[in-house]
Design a protein that fits this description.
Elements (H helix, E strand, L loop, with lengths): L5 E7 L7 H18 L5 E7 L4 H10 L4 H11 L3 E9 L2 E2 L1 H9 L9 E8 L7 H12 L3 E2 L4 E4 L10 H20 L15 H6 L6
Parallel strand pairs: 1-2, 1-3, 3-5, 5-6, 5-7
Antiparallel strand pairs: 3-4
Helix pairs in contact: 1-6, 2-4
InterPro entries: CE1759_FMN_reduct, Flavoprotein-like_sf, FMN_Rdtase-like_dom, NAD(P)H-dep_FMN_reductase
Keywords: Flavoprotein, FMN, Oxidoreductase
Organism: Arthrobacter ginkgonis
Length: about 210
């Protein structure tokens, strides 16, 4: 019996057309898709360009309500099997557009979700944004962030297709995301077995050690 294809959504915070964030997101999505294919798992990759929803996100921040088109996009992201979050570095931190999008999500929307983090910037010195700006936000949202984050600086895009070092990082991160998708529970994301029990039952299950 054929299984339903896994879904990977790339959330790009790039502002230009084209943008290096989108380019990096495309490569990461395809790397994960390829790694899943090696495990006989089909996957569809979709891309969300946050710049197309900038006004909707800003209105949601002010009013507390998502427009229908923004709500539809949020559902697409939060119902995926995995998400790639990628955006440019502004003023030594995650871009405001990416952060604002994460801010309007329900705090439990990405709980347990396999997530790959990536960023782009002019200098490799900005790569610390991955661990000191982006990863804490996703940890707060309790997403299952894969170990390898990918940062691409201007020099990484030199030459033919970005250089071997970037290609190696993309492949490794894509493989980690594929493994996370393969091992993720198909349903009930965000609610552990113990969390679903009443408090009284949790206490009843505690037994003193002998």
């Amino acid at each position: 019996m054929p299984t339903m294809a896994k879904s990977i959504v790339v959330v790009s915070g790039g502002l230009g057309v084209p943008s290096t964030s989108r380019m990096l997101g495309d490569r990461l999505g395809q790397a994960a898709r390829g790694a899943l294919a090696e495990r006989a798992i089909d996957a569809d990759v979709a891309v969300v360009e946050l710049r197309d929803y900038a006004a909707d996100i800003a209105n949601n921040m002010v009013t507390g309500y998502a427009s229908p088109r923004l709500a539809e996009m949020i559902t697409q992201v939060t119902s995926a099997d995995a998400v790639v979050v990628v955006g440019p570095v502004f003023t030594a931190s995650i871009s405001g557009l990416v952060k604002s999008f994460l801010d309007v999500l329900d705090p439990k929307a990405l709980e347990g979700m396999p997530v790959l983090l990536a960023a782009t910037g002019g200098s490799a010195r900005h790569s610390l944004v991955l661990d000191y700006a982006m990863r804490p936000v996703l940890a707060y949202l309790r997403a299952a962030v894969v170990p390898t984050g990918v940062f691409a600086s201007t020099e990484d895009w030199g030459g033919d297709t970005g250089g071997g070092a970037l290609a190696d990082r993309v492949e490794r991160a894509g493989r980690e995301l594929a493994l996370a998708v393969e091992g993720a529970a198909p349903a009930g994301r965000g609610t552990g077995a113990m969390e679903s029990l009443p408090f009284e039952q949790l206490l009843a299950n505690i037994r003193p050690s002998s």
